[in-house]
Amino acid sequence: MNLTYLRMEIRRLVRNRRLLVFSMLMPAILILVLGDTYTGDIDGVSAKAYLMVSMGLLGSMSAAIGSGGTIAVERGLGWNRQLRLTPLNPGKYVLSKVVLSLVMALPPLVIAYLLGTLALGVRLPAGTWLLVGLGSWLGALPFAALGVVLGYLARPDSVQQVSGLLFMLLAAFGGLWVPVEIMPHLMRSIAEFTPAYWVGQVARGPLFHHGQLSLHALAILLAWAAGLGLVALRRFQADTARA
Amino acid sequence: MTETVLTRSSGKPAGDRAAVSLRGLTKRYGQVTAVDGLDLTIRPGEVVALLGPNGAGKSTTIDMLLGLTRPDAGTAQLFGLPPGEAIRRGHVGALLQSGGLLPDLTVREIVQLASALHRGGPARGAAGRDSRRTRPVDAVLDRAGLTDLAGRRVGRLSGGQQQRVRFAMALVADPDLIVLDEPTTGLDVEARRAFWAQLREETQQGRTVLFATHYLDEADSYADRIVLMRAGQVVADGTAGQIKAVVSGRTIRATLPGADLATLAALPGVDRVEGRGDSVLLHCIDSDTALRALITTTPARDIEVVARGLEDAFIALTMEGAQS
Prior knowledge:
By secondary structure, chain A is mostly helical.
């Protein structure tokens, strides 16, 4: 990993603002708008805490997909060719994108938890906070890989629309818009086949299980990350070989 | 040879090794053969122009030479190494025809980035002990005439300024070989002149340069050697003077009233004769032999020997392909 490269990548996304602003603004607005409608509890967990965690995931998910998606734009700019004129190992380029995704996934989580605490009055034990945050952050991994896949499949001018649509579908089926617990049965059955559902289960697990991570959900999440990572690797190899 | 490699401790490549060695390089795109069994050797220190019309296969050749495109047949080696390895070791700096810039970064940042990526590469020497060198970013910015633009976003620069950024990125690794694909396309006259002045300062330090161009005057003015390409093949290779001579031979013009054109055409070294009043034009294959014969066997006077212009040579050579 080249740290200068990572620093420049972050700087570019911060300067570019769109991704950062969108991924922070979306959970912030939803928390403020929906906060009052989430009253009482869902299966014994504060509905407001549930909303806060889900909205944080929405933001970090979009940031992670968007970061990997920058590959499509860079391919359009001929940057991948330029990089091949340097000693940078192409594998490290993809790795930087994954690390970039993880970095970009943090600000939305921070915003969501800040607003959850300040605006919704969510109070959680320190250990639960930590596990919820860690689980949500790890949850960005499969979406980072998905972003890389899109970065190699989509065209530079359509990558935003494609990843936007995919993000909406995944979020809906993963139970981020509507809590899984109140979903129609059929939808919930489908939900279990999406990575977003398992990210939600990992992130919200500590709320339900007295500050415990659900290892079952974590294993499935990591399997999704590995699977999508493998697809990303294949796309990346195909792209490098074709050139 | 093996011994040379083992005992060489400096980072510079051995002098007896070709900077560029292309053997039987071939690339097809469907029915079209873009590059057709191309052989080319460039010695260290040469400044070579790859000249040809659009579609002659210049860019494809350069892409294969840099390892960006995989050849269908043949090999490309730079300093005895596969292209990717030569690049990883910092032997090569390249300026591609378009793209390759990140608009969100400033000029200084993108050059710093290129510098950081090159410092991350392996050491250049075969012994692997010498640490990797790059040129200081400020010096490179200065060389490319970018000092005043260092804080400007790359996306806000003009085409000519962006080309200078690509140039700076090509120089930052302190390469032994600089490869430029149509470096002045889209630049105005003044920017072109400034660019070549900057490049000339680089070549004076003994760097090897290969540039593709379709501008004849650039090849003529800035290259020691011109490799003329047509339809994926090398059709002429030599100094500008040699190419002019090979293509057209030379033309002898003389005053010779009442000349018998058939006799003149039979002189050794003469290809074709034209009569224009009292003047005759002898198009020659070998003008030296023809001149000796002309002087000793005829009363010709006011004799001039003229080489055809490079432009004529270029057109003659590159048009043949269009008919075949």
